[in-house]
């Protein structure tokens, strides 16, 4: 197996007022993967994200990027953040500058790139998140969803190897969620490792190829996608519920409407395709249902 691109080894972090953020947390993010970090509110997802790009430093244990422990010097953190981009849960915590274009150019300027390179990256990032028409708007005048897209564009302009998104879908309407989904699919196809922290099990079921489940700051379980259909009762027992597509497929299977499949449907559209296929079979061979 290749070296994980990011890893935590026995990391413990307690906030100054005493609440536990992470407790003996050990996990690895495979290079090139789509990794979901799942957990109920307060389980440590945001604390974990802040460790991945060095905003928080473990009191015990080690965070590794590319097999090497993070260095927390100014230069070490600057290099790390050019390679590991974090889109914050709350866009207000991330946006700094007056206008959208200025905000997105902040990161690449900080890397010391020349002006034409910065301009090219910013224009490309604006286009990717469909914000060209808002490029000169003051950031504070944007809607919540638009601010979230500015944050993503700021990270894209850094051209990182890993993008971590903390609750990226919360507060986005359905078309914006669909657009973000398509953007993430493109990024992953370009070879970028994508990590998403969420409690949205339906999204994880459809999208992720690796799952880590946090509970009270520790890793309660780590699975890859092939294992997921068999461990859904354990996922539910960890307080995350059951993916709707999996639940519906199981009901239809038990009732005899759908056949057992080697690869159960992971998305709503896959499930619809399976149902339609079963319908066509019944139409062609009505005796099969008697
Ligand atoms: N700035 C902070 N100061 C003190 N305690 C904090 C702080 N941030 C988080 N915590 C505590 O650390 C624990 C983990 O919180 P964290 O925000 O990492 O969870 P989360 O899984 O991201 O939750 P959510 O799903 O609500 O975003 C919680 O008990 C929380 O109260
Ligand atoms: Mg959080």
Polypeptide structure, described:
With 290 residues, the chain is of the alpha/beta class. It folds into 2 domains: 236 residues, P-loop containing nucleotide triphosphate hydrolases (Rossmann fold, 3-Layer(aba) Sandwich); 48 residues, no CATH class. The chain is built from 10 helices and 10 strands. Helix 3 runs parallel beside helix 5 and helix 4 packs across helix 5. The model has no long low-confidence stretch (mean pLDDT 92). Magnesium ion binds next to helix 1.
Please outline the helices and strands.
Layout: E1 6-14, E2 20-29, E3 34-38, H1 45-52, E4 60-65, E5 68-69, H2 74-83, E6 84-87, H3 100-110, H4 115-128, H5 144-156, E7 162-166, H6 174-189, E8 193-198, H7 201-207, E9 210-215, E10 218-224, H8 228-240, H9 244-254, H10 268-284
Parallel strand pairs: 3-8, 3-9, 6-7, 7-8
Antiparallel strand pairs: 1-2, 1-4, 4-5, 9-10
Helix pairs in contact: 3-4, 3-5, 4-5
Bound molecules: adenosine-5'-triphosphate and magnesium ion (MG).
Magnesium ion binds at residues 45-46, 89, 166.
């Amino acid at each position: 197996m290749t070296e994980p691109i990011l890893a935590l080894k026995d990391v413990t972090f307690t906030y100054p007022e005493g609440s536990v953020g992470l407790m003996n947390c050990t996990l690895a993010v495979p290079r090139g993967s789509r990794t979901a970090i799942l957990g109920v509110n307060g389980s440590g997802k945001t604390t974990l994200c802040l460790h991945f790009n060095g905003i928080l430093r473990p009191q015990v244990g080690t965070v590794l990027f590319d097999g090497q422990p993070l260095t927390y010097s100014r230069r070490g953190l600057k290099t790390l953040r050019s390679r590991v981009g974090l889109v914050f849960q709350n866009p207000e915590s991330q946006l700094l500058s007056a206008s959208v274009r200025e905000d997105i150019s902040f990161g690449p300027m900080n890397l010391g790139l020349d002006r034409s390179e910065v301009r090219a990256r910013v224009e490309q990032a604006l286009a990717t998140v469909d914000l060209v028409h808002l490029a000169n708007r003051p950031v504070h005048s944007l809607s919540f969803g638009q601010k979230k897209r500015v944050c993503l564009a700021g990270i894209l302009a850094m051209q990182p190897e890993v993008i971590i998104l903390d609750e990226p879908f919360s507060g986005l309407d359905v078309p914006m969620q669909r657009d973000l989904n398509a953007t993430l699919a493109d990024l992953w196809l370009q070879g970028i490792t994508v990590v998403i922290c969420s409690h949205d099990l339906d999204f994880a079921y459809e999208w992720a190829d690796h799952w880590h489940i946090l509970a009270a700051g520790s890793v309660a379980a780590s699975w890859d996608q092939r294992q997921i259909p068999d461990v859904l009762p354990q996922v539910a027992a960890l307080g995350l519920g059951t993916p709707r597509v999996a639940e519906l497929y199981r009901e239809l299977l038990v009732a005899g409407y759908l056949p057992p499949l080697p690869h159960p449907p992971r998305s709503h559209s896959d499930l619809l395709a399976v149902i339609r296929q079963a319908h066509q079979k019944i139409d062609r061979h009505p005796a099969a249902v008697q």
